[in-house]
Structure formats: structure tokens, C-alpha cells
Amino acid sequence: GHMVEWKLWQVLAYYLDQSSPLSSAFDIIQDNQSFLKDQVKSLAIQEKCRSTYAHRQHSIHRHILLGNTDKPVQLLLEVEQDSPNFYQDCLRASLISSVSDSEVAQSTIKLVATNLIANDHLQEGCQLLCLIKKAVDACRYMQNFHWYNEAIWLAKVALSKEEYLEVMKYNIDLLVNKGSRHLGILLAISLSFFDKAAEILLATKLVTVAAPLVESCIEVGKWPESGGEIKDRVFVEYAKYMVSLNNLEVALKYCDMGGEKGRQLGEELRICSQ
Predict the structure, then answer these.
(1) SS3 content of the chain, % helix, strand, coil (to 5)
(2) 3-state class (DSSP) for residue 207
(3) To bridge 142 with a disulfide, which of 2, 151, 205, 245 should be the other Cys (CB 3.0-4.6 Å)?
(4) Residue 220: Cβ-neighbour burial (10 angstroms; 0-12, 13-18, 19+)
């Protein structure tokens, strides 16, 4: 409870004024530039510590998703000659080295990628899609197969701003629907979807958090013009909450800020209090 709220206010404070970047502890909630920088640094550390074939494959996967090709080829060619993976890793290294922009090559690789994904080789298929600059398609496949964190990771390091926003909007809804509402709220704030964050908070019965969030955004001019309806709902619900605490003065203040329904509730409260 308290830790979740603390993280929320930390994230909100950063995305409202961006005075100092969020630490790497916030992971996918960081802005994309900071996230990418930390992931590249983390990958370099992991490579120094890798000791198994699985570790090497993880590094290869991450480099491909980051858009690198030289490093994956180098790592694939490190495979021992007596390894059962020697043949396939050599073929993969050859494929990565020879990817071209020709239409035939692109369509062939995309077809192979979709066939791999359809046959339970999601990671390998998504790697191929990233090799031909189809990271947004890879993100959608990851979402469809419930690889939510991996889809967010890829979106943050590989997509254009427009593609990123489209993928992340869908991710927020998926997270909320599967019960990860707090992560959905933090992601919404990180995208400046403050009205979406307030809507989720309201649905989660956290009006005591939603109201100050809306006020903070309005105060610094960051509340979206399209968010009038959710703003009014938040303030009306907060006014009702204040009534339940017998705090009429504050309740009336929020009624006055809650649009037409707020004004109606305020009139009723004033009549009842006389």
C-alpha cells in the first residue's frame, strides 16, 4: 500500500517536472532514453559474467532486439565445435550477417518468422522480425502470447514514438485487465496519460490518490484537455468521500471543481446542511 503510493508519487513528480531521472530500480517506468542507457550498461555487465550457453543466448537475444548485428554474430561463432548447437548457431550467424533490404529477403524472413511463432518459437520469430526492422510486429506477437514485460522492453528500446505510444496504450489495458493495475497506472503516468491513470485509480477505489494526482497535473498545466469528464468524476467522488468523513467544507470545495454533477451535489449538500 504505502510503498505503491510512494512509487506513484515519485514517478508522477518526475514526469511532471523531470528535474532528475528515475533510478534504474524503476526499470520499465523510466523514460526511454534512460532505460536504454541502463539496459546497454546491464547487458555489458551480464556479458562479463556469462558462463553458460543459456547466458550467451540471452545476450544474443537482447543484442538483436537492440538492433545490433555484429555482436550476436560474434557470440554465435563462439560456439564449440562439439556442441550440439554448433550447426544451427553457425547458420544463425550466417543469416544475421546476410540480411539485406531486398523485398524478397524481407518477405521471406517475415514468412519464416511468422511460421516460427505459430509453432511455439516466439523468441526466435521475434528476433527475425527485429532483424528486418519489424519490431512493432514483434511487440504485438509478444502481447498476444502474454509476454507483456518483454513487449514493453522491446517497445522502449526499438520503436518510434508513435509506434511506442500505440503499443503501450494496448499494454496498459492488458495489464489492467489481468489485474496488474498498479503497473498499468505507473505506465500511464510515464506516457503522460494522466487521465488514464486517474481513471484506473478511480476504478481501483483509490480516490484519495486520484484527486491529488489530478490536482497536481492541473497545477502545472499538464492535465489533458480531453480529460474533463474523468476530472469531474474524480472530484465528485472525492467530495463524497469527504462527506463520509463529515468534512463539509472540503467536500464543497471539490464539488465546485467537479463540473455540473459536482455543482448539483454541492447544492444538495448546502441545502442539507442548513
Answers:
(1) 80, 0, 20
(2) helix
(3) 151
(4) exposed
CB atoms within 10 A of CB 19: 7
C-alpha cell at 262: 459536482
Name the residue among 52, 189, 13, 228 with its Cα closest to residue 22: 13
Q: What is the pTM (predicted TM-score) of this model? A: 0.83
Q: Is the CB of residue 139 less than 8 Å from the CB of residue 148?
A: no
> φ and ψ at 99, to 5 degrees?
-60, 130
Q: What was the pLDDT predicted at 22?
A: 85
Q: Is 140 within 8 Å of 167 (Cβ atoms)?
A: yes
Q: Give me the pLDDT at residue 1, please.
A: 60
Residues in the chain: 274
8 Å CB contact between 236 and 255 = yes
